[in-house]
Amino acid sequence: MLMAHPAVLTGLVDRYWALAVLDAAAEDDSPVRRELEDAERALCVVTGTADVHAALFSARHRLPGARVLDDSALGTVE
């Protein structure tokens, strides 16, 4: 599978979060909502996922600084 360059992933993730904040304050069917949906689709395409949450998770683990043995998706054992 092709992998997106880390700079592309960082830019898409930053764009997604910025638009998500703006969308929270916007009305339905706003231009911000359409841009947010575009950012979601782009994230899904570059990460090979079908869901924005999975795309964000995947992008997080592909970005520089992600730990090789990062188990943050696993529950804690007590």
From TrEMBL:
Query: Sorted alphabetically, which Pfam families does this protein's record hold?
Result: DUF5133 (PF17196)
Q: Which domain of life is it from?
A: Bacteria
Q: What is this protein called?
A: DUF5133 domain-containing protein
Q: Which organism is it from?
A: Streptomyces katrae
